[in-house]
Each structure stands twice: as C-alpha cells, then as structure tokens.
Amino acid sequence: MLLVKLGGSVLTDKARLRTPRKTAILRLTKELAGLGDDLIVVHGAGSFGHVLARRYRLNGVASPSKAKGAAIVQRDVRALDDLVVGGLLKAGLAPVALPPSAILSLDDGRLASFEVSPFEDYVRQGFTPVTFGDVVRDRTRGVAVCSGDVLMLEIAKAFRPRCVVFAADVDGLFTSDPKKRGDARLLLSVAEADLPLIDFGPAKGPDVTGGIEAKVRRMLEIASHADECIIVNGNVKNRVRDALRGRIVVGTRVVGGH
Ligand code: IPE
Q1: What's the 171 CA to ligand 1 centre distance in angstroms?
Q2: Which tens digit of pLDDT belongs to each residue from 14-45?
Q3: What is the model's pTM?
Q4: Residue 96 Cα, ligand 1 centroid: separation in angstroms?
Q5: For residue 241, what is the domain's CATH number?
Q6: How far, in Å, is the centroid of ligand 1 from the Cα of 108?
Q7: Helix axes 148-159, 117-124, angle to 10 degrees
Q8: Domain interval for residue 171
Q9: How many domains does the chain have?
Q10: 129 lines ligand 1 (CB under 6 A)
Q11: Does ligand 1 come within 6 angstroms of the Cβ of 161?
Q12: What confidence tens digit (pLDDT) does each residue in 118-132 have?
C-alpha cells in the first residue's frame, strides 16, 4: 500500500479564494499512475477550504449559522476534489471520492468516528480511494474543519503503508521558514527529538488546521505506522513519483517511534 497527501499549497494558490493550479494537478495525478501497488490519495483544501473556513469560523463554537458556511466549504472542497479525481481518471486510474463529511466525525476537534471499510472495499476492487480536508460533523462544535492529515493518520493505522509521501510546496522541512530566512537549512530527516531545534515561527496566513508544527507532530505519528515516510517538493516534476517508487530523492525523511 502506498499513501500520498497532495498539500493544498501545491494544488491551489493558497492566497486566492478557490484558485486551482490546474497544471500542477494534472502533472501530479499523472505521477500517481502506474506505481504497481495499491494507492490511497489524500489531498488538502488550500484556498478551496481555508479562506472561507476562517471567514465563517467553522472551527468555532456550535451555532445555527455555521451550517450554511459549512455547506459552502463542503461544496468547494468537493469541487477541488473533482479536479483531482478528473486528473486521476485521465491518468488511467479508477479513483473513488470518499468525502470525510460522510464517513468521519470529530468531538471538539478530535477524532470521534471513522469508517475505514469503504477504503478497504474499494481498494480490494482495484479502485484508488481519494479523500481530502473537509468540514465534518463535530459532537461539540456542531461542525468543524478536519485536515487531510487526520485522514492520513487513520488510513496509515488501518493499512500500514509501505511508503507515505507528503507533497509540499518546498523541498521538505527546514530549520526555519525557507520563504523568509536565507539561512534556513533543509533537514534530511526529522524525529521527535529534533522538534525543539526547529523554529516554526508564529502561525501565519489563513491556515485553519494548525500550521506547520501541528502538521509535523502528526506526520511523526503517521510515520510510526508506515515503513517509510517522506516530505518532498510536489512542485518538482517526478519527485512525488520517484519517492513513491522508493527512489532516493531530495526531501525530509520522517522518522516515527516505531
Ligand atoms: C483543510 O485541510 C480543510 C479545510 C480548510 C476545509 P488540509 O489541512 O488537509 O489542507 P491544506 O493541505 O493545509 O490545504
């Protein structure tokens, strides 16, 4: 089993509402065909999710007014998912969309329930399940935002993938923000013990799912359920493909406590 997360910053222009990067979507989905193993695809929401999720306060306390905003963002993330599914179809795979809004629930932002059997059943039939960051039911908050990373963890637990790849818009994890600091160094690997050495900086931008540090912590947990886990640059042609094929590529190996 191979598991990949296509980050929202690669698939979309994260600063401009509902703006897909169509060329990147087509290239990346093509890279996912012909890998010779079962595959599950998770993708982020980028500007199809974060901008309005923040505007409608979808991670906030329960209120009747959240439903309308949630419905809009659910529609938007499915529109992005349609582009990903379309690309995978064109690449020759048999993708099936499994929206978290239907198969997962949270309780105060933490996982409450997750239906794994649709993934198992479709994989067995030769499909490529595709799921994504979404707005889902939350027992405390009514609805809440669920990052694709939460799906990554649950899928990794259930399938114990041979290889997990995170496609980011930079080469991997750096000692500080490479977009701001010229002296930022790419880490070849990251383990829990390295976290205090990394300058994550203040959370910035419209990201409603916790910023880089929360993502890295979850990646470490995901890595503990996989043989290999690596963060690579999804903007570099064939890097995601090569990483999934087990080739040595530029990136940051995530080393979980197995
Ligand atoms: C975010 O999902 C979901 C919504 C904002 C609705 P992710 O956390 O997986 O998305 P990216 O990768 O940061 O864009």
Answers
A1: 19
A2: 999 999 999 999 999 999 999 999 999 999 99
A3: 0.97
A4: 19
A5: 3.40.1160.10
A6: 17
A7: 60
A8: 2-254
A9: 1
A10: no
A11: no
A12: 999 999 999 999 999
